[in-house]
């Protein structure tokens, strides 16, 4: 299946051979980012993480999806973008099996949470009814009559992501969409966690849940993930899953994370599997130093029933102190639950705190002074500029190096690309003013704008230097 994106990775337009920029209109001359899935300097956007779930699904199950025909409900083509009440859905099916696509997102609108939706699908020999809720802005691909290695999943209110076979044991990975209670209806004769029943209902508010499905010689685990963990999922060599809020990179050298945080938590599935060999069952903790990283790995014997602590707060504690204690207990409980399913890695880099000095030299003009060796210990450093205006332009020694069309988000520039030019020099910022009720004329080769009238708005609110670290995962 071919996956098409307009701009997958933002980039920078080169300067023309004869001194002209490719964009000479009322937009950025250099930056060609347009909030792409991956930013111009490698920044991960929310769309990147959400698209990963779709790409994993299509890569793993595209051979089952592509032959299916599309079926739209009556009136689907007449739904207006201004209609925030009608549920958007469609079906891909061969008349026996397929997928229900549910969409509760509308561009440039805020869709309401839905709690009691019903979709009835009339097949040749039966009817299948889904009853579900779904959060505003969420979407889902729900399977029906899906063959799980010989076991029929009649329907589910959960989205398929992957089929993996780490260590020779099959696991199907599902996502529980936000606002949707995950349910799995199997064919009769199935055993779920050793009990003969056909319906499995997941816990509300789950982060991750694992259960075993068996019938005859067929057996598999189903790993169910909440949206937050699903967005952190990466499939790596050996059919293992790594969960991290950082960017995970894999090549011939191994695995490493690229992150804006010095301290990072990484989860690994399946628990206890390393290089294809089960780890010792006893709890272990060890520190490993290597390539600028500090790792602590916890291997704890899992799949034990979590017991309620049941302590009561002393009478003299204040409400605020109780709240903090409750939060601490909830976080501890979360860690206990997740350690039943995953191995944990804690990765740490030496934290850096570079600071830039921003000096206003004229209306809409600023001078940035960077510290010496600001890249030391970092893979890159993002210059983040918080400003108000129309277009921001950055210069080194009179040369335009970057520009930005103001959209309310911080303007980011990866400084590693300009490290040679920055030696002993400063960055000049010019913010083209934005004026109310004014006509805009573009006449400057320096990407500036001249306003004819109105109230001027061109101000840098704050600048910061964000270190980007790269940490090697030496233990998996």
Structural key phrases:
single chain; 476 residues; mainly beta; beta-galactosidase, domain 2; Jelly Rolls; 7-stranded antiparallel sheet; 4 helices; 39 strands; 43% strand; globular
Structure description:
The structure is a single chain. 10% of the residues lie in helices and 43% in strands. By secondary structure, the protein is mainly β. It has a seven-stranded antiparallel beta sheet with strand order 3-4-5-8-9-12-15, with no helix packed on it. Strand 23 and strand 24 (277-278) form a beta hairpin. The longest helix has 21 residues, at 319-339.
Describe this structure in a few short sentences.
The protein is mainly beta and 476 residues long. Mean pLDDT is 82; it is low at 275-322 and 438-453. Among the domains are: 68-231, beta-galactosidase, domain 2, CATH 2.102.20.10; 352-468, Jelly Rolls (Sandwich).
Briefly note the CATH topology name of the domain at 68-231: beta-galactosidase, domain 2
Helix content: 10-25%
Mean pLDDT: 82
Q: How far is it from the N-terminal to the C-terminal residue, by CA?
A: 31 Å
Strand sequence of the main sheet, in spatial order? 3-4-5-8-9-12-15
Strand percent estimate: 35-45%
**Rough outline:** globular
Look at the structure and name the CATH superfamily of the domain at 68-231.
Beta-galactosidase, domain 2
Count of individual helical segments: 4
Unreliable stretches (pLDDT < 50, length at least 5) are 275-322, 438-453
What is the top-level CATH class of the domain at 68-231?
Answer: Mainly Beta
Biggest sheet statistics: 7 strands, antiparallel
């Amino acid at each position: 299946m071919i996956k098409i994106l307009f701009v997958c990775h933002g980039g920078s337009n080169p300067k023309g051979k004869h001194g002209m920029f490719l964009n000479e209109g009322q937009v950025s001359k250099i930056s060609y980012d347009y909030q792409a899935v991956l930013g111009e300097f490698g920044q991960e956007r929310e769309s990147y993480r959400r698209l990963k779930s779709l790409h994993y699904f299509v890569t793993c199950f595209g051979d089952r999806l592509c032959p299916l025909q599309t079926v739209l409900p009556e009136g689907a083509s007449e739904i207006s973008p201004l209609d925030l009440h009608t549920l958007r859905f469609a079906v891909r099916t061969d008349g026996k099996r397929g997928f229900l696509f549910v969409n509760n997102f509308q561009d440039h609108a805020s869709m309401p949470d839905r709690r009691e939706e019903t979709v009835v699908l009339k097949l040749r020999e039966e009817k299948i009814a889904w009853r579900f809720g779904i959060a505003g802005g969420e979407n889902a691909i729900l399977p029906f009559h899906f063959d799980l290695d010989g076991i029929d999943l009649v329907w589910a209110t959960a989205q398929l992501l992957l089929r993996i076979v780490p260590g020779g044991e099959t696991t199907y990975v599902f996502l529980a969409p936000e606002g949707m209670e995950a349910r799995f209806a199997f064919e009769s004769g199935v055993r779920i966690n050793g009990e003969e029943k056909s319906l499995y209902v997941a816990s509300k508010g789950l982060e991750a849940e694992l259960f075993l499905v068996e019938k005859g010689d067929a057996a598999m685990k189903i790993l169910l993930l909440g949206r937050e963990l699903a967005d952190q999922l990466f499939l790596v060599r050996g059919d293992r899953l790594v969960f991290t809020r950082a960017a995970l990179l894999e090549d011939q050298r191994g695995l490493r994370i690229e992150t804006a945080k010095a301290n990072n938590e990484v989860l690994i599935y399946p628990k206890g599997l390393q290089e294809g060999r089960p780890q010792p069952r006893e709890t272990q903790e060890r520190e490993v130093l290597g390539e600028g990283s500090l790792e602590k790995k916890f291997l704890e014997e899992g799949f034990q029933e979590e017991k309620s602590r049941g302590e009561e707060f002393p009478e003299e504690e204040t409400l605020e102190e109780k709240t903090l204690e409750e939060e601490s207990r909830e976080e501890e409980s979360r860690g206990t639950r997740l350690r039943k399913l995953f191995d944990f890695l804690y990765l740490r880099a030496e934290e850096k705190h570079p600071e830039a000095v921003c000096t206003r030299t004229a209306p809409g003009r600023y001078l940035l002074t960077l510290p010496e060796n600001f890249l030391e210990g970092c893979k890159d450093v993002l210059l983040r500029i918080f400003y108000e205006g129309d277009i921001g332009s950055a210069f080194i020694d009179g040369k335009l190096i970057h520009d930005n069309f103001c959209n309310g988000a911080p303007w980011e520039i990866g400084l590693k690309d300009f490290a040679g030019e920055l030696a002993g020099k400063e960055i000049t910022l010019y913010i083209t003013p934005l004026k109310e009720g004014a006509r805009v004329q573009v006449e400057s080769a320096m990407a500036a704008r001249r306003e004819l009238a109105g109230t001027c708005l061109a101000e840098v609110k704050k600048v910061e230097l964000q270190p980007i670290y790269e940490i090697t995962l030496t233990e998996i």
